[in-house]
Design goal:
This protein is mostly beta strands and about 190 residues long. The chain is built from one helix and 14 strands; from the N terminus they run H-E-E-E-E-E-E-E-E-E-E-E-E-E-E. The protein has one domain: Lipopolysaccharide (LPS) transport protein A like domain (lipopolysaccharide transport protein A fold, Sandwich), CATH 2.60.450. The chain is globular and about 50 Å long.
């Protein structure tokens, strides 16, 4: 399950172009995809220069290398004083990225989905809200909220009475034992 969180993490981090080559955060390894083209499509693009915001609306699809993300709305907030442009200038000066509505990130057999995902660049955290589910193959992890701290290399899954934390791990084909979460579950 090492790769479960990296799916959503990599996609949101790649939007900031802020990953270093083979940088490690806890058990997650991020491959530098900055040299790969970032392709974003949507029904509508709104640039609010005064606010330093770029909004992609309707059938948003983001693809870079082997990672894809889809959602209903993707909002990129520039740091104070940053003038956004669709050419990518704001991507070097991002405060936060919010994906809303039917958020889905896919990399191979790894899939993360939620109603909303927020990447806070300064705090180096990603929060998945609104019924987040992270899956790799048949293994699944869900709760009310999943918070990933990239600096500390920690992930916290929170649940509640209506939506408790739920982990489903299938036995490994090797030696009939459960896959180790720390070893990526492959």
């Amino acid at each position: 399950m090492n790769g479960l969180f990296s799916t959503i993490v990599i996609c949101l981090v790649l939007l900031t172009n802020g990953v270093a080559s083979e940088a490690k955060t806890g058990n997650l390894t991020f491959v530098d995809r900055r040299s790969e083209p970032l392709h974003i499509t949507s029904d509508r693009l709104v640039v609010r220069e005064k606010d330093g915001v770029i909004v992609f609306e309707g059938h948003v699809f983001v693809k870079q290398a082997d990672i894809s993300m889809s959602c209903d709305k993707l909002t990129v907030y520039g740091k104070k004083g940053t003038k956004p442009s669709p050419s990518g200038e704001v991507l070097r000066q991002i405060d936060r990225v919010e994906a809303e509505g039917n958020v889905r990130v896919v990399q191979g057999n790894r899939v993360a989905s939620s109603g909303k995902a927020i990447y806070d660049v300064s705090k180096q955290t990603i929060v998945l809200l609104d019924s987040p589910v992270v899956a790799q193959g048949s293994d699944r992890l869900s709760g009310q909220m999943i918070t990933i701290d990239l600096q500390k290399g920690t992930s916290v899954v929170e649940g509640g009475s209506e939506k408790p934390v739920q982990v489903i791990l299938y036995p490994s084909k090797k030696k009939g034992i459960l896959k180790e979460v720390e070893n990526g579950g492959d």
